[in-house]
Amino acid sequence: MKKVLLGLLVLIVLCAVATGVAFFRRPFWFFERMGRITLRGAGLERLEITGPRGRLVYFRGGVGPPVALIHGANDEAGAWAHVAGPLVERGHHLLVVDLPGHGESEPASGPLAMEDLLAGLEAIFQAAALDEKTTLVGNSLGGFVAMAYAVAHSRQVGHVILVNGAAIRGEGPGAAVNLLPKNREQARTAIDAITDPSSPRLPDFVLDDLVRRAPGSPLDRLLQSPFSQYALDGRLGEVEIPVTLLWGESDRLMPAAYAERIAKGLPIARLTPVPRCGHVPQRECPERFLPLLEKALDLPPAPAEEVASGS
Asked: Are 167 and 239 in contact (CB under 8 A)?
């Protein structure tokens, strides 16, 4: 018995050491694994299908109105780990996707275009065989995908929730931010632009991992293909689907003025700021973001004349 216990202790120590090494050498990989484990722990099933460009992975679970959670560029399904469980408990049927070229979804390398993202999302919805309109919740690039998909498939989508999500071309402080940093200084500038000043600063080894992952990343591959034709500049008035904008008010990549431009151009919209949060509030400040997301899912958006910050 002593030998067995000693063997277990040695195994535990070795696992702890291996985990520590993985965390310091590849922190983003570690965070992703933890997020995906959390999704499974929330009762979501990991599913695979074959899409137009290869394997597509998504997580599904819960009973109730369908809600699809769509991450941003260089992110994956685990981005929603802190909010997925509570949403399932509140009676929502979740689809949490890895967009093509992200997470475990293919293609893992080579060209990646907006068309691939939209076709992959369509394939997942077809496999899910949902029998009622879905709410699309999209963060950053995921918001851009959600809006483009909703315009093309208006009969399938009942509501879009943009979480610091793109919809139109933007100009402002974010234009100078290098989202594919080549050194630690550029990485620090990028992180500072998308987080609240009060949030803990990332240590240098995490910034170094961000630099290491930039070449060949999904964002790097996407920027090689034009997708400006999907921007809704001058066409927001044609969007008949209700849109809610939940906006981390500390975001300097897509600042509040950008969100206001989108909201004012939409026929049916509501803009609600998320205080002391940046570009990815579901990761940075889920405790402030989740109640606002739950409210947005429960209440229909306001008509255009009621659009106002904080409404």
From this structure: no
- Residue 63: inside a domain, yes or no? yes
Number of domains observed in the structure of the chain: 1
Provide the H-helix boundaries in the chain: 2-25, 27-41, 81-89, 114-128, 141-152, 184-194, 204-213, 218-222, 256-265, 281-284, 286-298
Tokens of 117: 């993202």
Domain that holds residue 230: 26-306
pTM of the model: 0.90
**Helix (H, G, I), strand (E, B), or coil: what is residue 57?**
strand
CA-CA-CA-CA torsion for 190, 310, 86, 103, nearest 10 degrees?
-30
- Condensed to tens digits (0 to 9), the pLDDT of residues 222-263 reads 999 888 899 999 999 999 999 999 999 999 999 999 999 999
Q: Confirm whether 4 is domain-assigned.
A: no
* pLDDT tens digits along 75-98: 999 999 999 999 999 999 999 999
